[in-house]
Design a protein that fits this description.
By secondary structure, the chain is an alpha/beta fold. It folds into three domains: 47 residues, Up-down Bundle (Transferase, Pyrimidine Nucleoside Phosphorylase, Chain A, domain 3), CATH 1.20.970.10; 246 residues, Pyrimidine Nucleoside Phosphorylase, Chain A, domain 2 (3-Layer(aba) Sandwich), CATH 3.40.1030.10; 86 residues, Pyrimidine nucleoside phosphorylase-like, C-terminal domain (Aldehyde Oxidoreductase, domain 3), CATH 3.90.1170.30. It is built from 17 helices and 13 strands. It has a four-stranded mixed sheet with strand order 1-4-5-13, sandwiched between helices. Strands 6-9-11-7 form a four-stranded antiparallel sheet. Helix 1 packs parallel to helix 3, helix 5 runs parallel beside helix 11 and helix 5 packs across helix 12. The chain starts with a helix and ends with a strand.
């Protein structure tokens, strides 16, 4: 069997066998098949797609390329949530302690920022002392104690995905539905969750730009995950505008604590509570999403999720006192403001343009090895639907350096869209998809 024949078969639109996919993935992980051949195969998949059977085989083989988390001996249920990537999306930080307060364990293996989308691990790294690289024993201990634990993907957990993910990012094949499906599910099944809730985003700030493509990905995740024996719910959510009032690493951790104290932005809390409600249903604590949401709101009002959030900081090596002392002040000294150029209404702030400006500011990265700034970011004082007068403050902006600020400001000004009349409120959650 030769890699070039597999590439040519997929280029021609043929369905690959388990043996062909296994040969390619196994050879790539072993270092026997070079990047350029796997890149060619990924581009063929991008254009020709994969059948549901191929996608399931690819997911299974990627999962089996390394170790999985052993959660035996810890009482469940184990339910996790995954977002397909957005701007200002810090829902994981908020919902994990909420569902933990209701007796659901959330084993969360997260990623870092790439391109215009934020990364949960980069946000957590902004907390002084917080460790996002946990061995399996630490992960198990913290999960059992706090009800959730946050870690990154190690070289031993789904190594095929770690290699392929980095390759896709630099070869223009990120948006492939079967490759996204296999990447997400292989990691999520490896972390030991019994059930999964997917936040599949569509819009300018998402990888899937329109709702139809987002629904295809959601359906692929649900069908493939169900075939692997997992209980799955996907929500199709709007990412045409940044979520919440903050975008940036420390800024988003800070906003997450605000949310747990009852001071969250309406759009952020709506998406977070609807995702958490489905986790509660899958965890067997509620009969439907409406009851699940009520339970989540009651938990928030009790203050227990906030206590668990701070307890987890301690469990993972963070300095709670220093974190709280930095709250509201941990900002880069390189800063500027974006003010309204005219009176009327804001129709929206374009998430795609904000996300790319964030890379220049230092929030995100273009390459996996790029460093990010904990103190760079944006605070949104007004968003789509607000009435404005010329000169009103729309954004406060902090950058890692002057060059980054200069590059970001024109993009941020261009991201602000004006209207003469009030625009209707966005429908944040378009559809729920189950098997």
């Amino acid at each position: 069997m030769r890699a070039v024949d597999i590439i040519m078969n997929k280029r021609a639109g043929k369905e690959l066998s388990r043996e062909e996919i296994g040969f390619l993935i196994g050879g790539y992980v072993a270092g026997e098949i070079p990047d350029y051949q796997v890149s060619a195969w990924a581009m063929a998949v991008f254009f020709q797609g994969m059948s549901p059977a191929e996608t399931a085989v690819l997911t299974e083989l990627m999962l089996k390329s390394g170790n999985t988390m052993d959660l035996s001996g810890i009482s469940g249920p184990f339910v996790d949530k995954h977002s397909t990537g957005g701007v200002g999306d810090k829902t994981s930080l908020i919902l994990a302690p909420i569902v933990a307060a209701l007796g659901i364990k959330d084993p969360m293996m997260s990623g870092r920022a790439l391109g215009h989308t934020g990364g949960t691990l980069d946000k957590l790294d902004a907390i002084p002392g917080y460790r996002t690289s946990l061995d399996i024993a630490e992960f198990r201990r913290i999960l059992a104690k706090d009800g959730f634990a946050m870690t990154g993907q190690t070289k031993d957990i789904v190594p095929a995905d770690r290699l392929l993910y980095a390759l896709r990012d630099v070869t223009g094949t990120v948006e492939s539905v079967p490759l996204i499906t296999a990447s997400i599910l292989s990691k999520k099944v490896a972390e030991g969750a019994d059930a999964l809730v997917f936040d599949v985003k569509f819009g300018s700030g998402a990888f899937m730009k329109d709702a139809a493509d987002g629904e295809k990905l959601a359906r692929s995740l649900v069908d493939t995950g169900t075939a692997m024996g997992k209980r799955i719910i996907a929500l199709l959510t709007d990412m045409n505008e940044p979520l919440g009032n903050m975008m940036g690493n420390f800024l988003e951790v800070e906003e997450s604590l605000d949310c747990l104290e009852g001071k969250g932005a309406a759009d952020l809390m709506e998406v977070t509570l609807e995702l958490a409600a489905r986790m509660v249903v899958l965890g067997g604590k509620a009969k439907d999403a409406a009851e699940g949401r009520r339970l989540c709101e009651d938990a928030l009002a009790s203050g227990k999720p906030r206590d668990l959030f701070l307890a987890n900081i301690v469990s993972q090596g963070g300095d709670v006192k220093k974190f709280l002392d930095l709250r509201g002040t941990y900002r880069s000294p390189v800063s500027a403001e974006i003010r309204a150029e005219k009176s009327g209404f804001l129709s929206r702030i374009d998430a795609w343009k904000v996300g790319h400006a964030g890379v220049d500011l230092g929030v995100g990265r273009n390459r996996t090895e790029d460093a990010v700034s904990p103190t760079a970011g944006i605070q949104f004082h007004r968003k789509g639907g607000h009435s404005i007068a010329a000169g009103d403050l729309i954004m406060s902006v902090w950058a890692r350096d002057e060059a980054g600020l200069a590059a970001a400001l024109p993009q941020l000004r261009d991201a602000v869209e004006y209207a003469e009349t009030e625009t209707p409120a966005r429908r944040l959650i378009l559809k729920e998809i189950q098997s």
